[in-house]
Please model this.
Amino acid sequence: MPLVLNSTQVSSSSMTLPSDIIQAAPLHITFNSGYVPPGFFTRFVVVLTNKMELCFEKDIGIYRNRVTFRYQDPNSTTIEHVIVTDCTDVIQIDVQHHHLNQEVVSFTKICQNIRVLLEDAAKEVEEILKKCASGQTDDNKSTSYIFMHKFKYVCASCCQSTPSHYIKLSPANQTLVCCENNTTKYRLPTELEEVWFKDTNQATEKPSSQRIRSPKPSEVMSTPAEPGSLSMPPPTDTHIHENPPVDPTHVFQSHIAKLCKTISSDVVAVCNECYSSDLIGDGTYSYVITATGVSIDDKATRLIHDIESQLKSSINKQEYLSNVIEAFLRVNNSNLSIVAEELKNSFL
Ligand SMILES: [Zn+2]
Model:
């Protein structure tokens, strides 16, 4: 990379993207040395150039430590931007998706494919760099160029002011993740995190769009997990019911206005109940409990919308919504209990 070019920094989270673009939670390639090994970034970019197309669109800018690729899934009509940034201590990957009304392949499936490409490229570069070590003899391996890289997933749930940190899948329940900031508590991944974890053959719902389409037969059939991918256990009860059950997401969405109004008087109690049952993210919890200068209505809205988005991304929506209803009932607010009972009757 020509040194005359400027470096750029990743903006940690508060990126303002146009409304038709969604961005997956960042992926980091980390190294046991604690920094990106010299020569890794440029070689990684070169290897990726064989797999994706370099992107030189206006507005993207040209930097010494950042390269943007265009990726099109062979079966997809959409084009993703894959942004690779050398942040000195880690390589950050951002995937931006321009979503269309008619999408054949889900963003989740595309992200899983991109991750495989990235993992292959990282392994290839690791091999290249091992051979680059100079002065190495069979007797003297001290100068041997050895490092280990690891893919990590940035937490997108905690408050945006916290420094970036990682999440990992629960060993016991592969549908839950745990954040480094709170290693004792497991939660559902957010919409933008789950694209890296969710099994490819159950991705039928699009993030940030309320449209639901039926899966194609080829997507329902299970496909072998790709090497190195973290796959989820297959769904146990979806798509096979004689009478398709009511969608819990729709039931909840039809009660949002009522809920926001009802929980306002007890927003802290509702938030505590939901948080202690792992139903909402850390970011929402600290917003409701600690944010100053915002109205109670704003807090209530944020809480209800977090529940909505957790519900949308939840593997077992029925179970998640039942737990939410139970949490609402524990608050002991008579108006809220009425709405909770209504919710219960609409979907059970
Ligand atoms: Zn976190």
The longest strand covers residues 91-98.
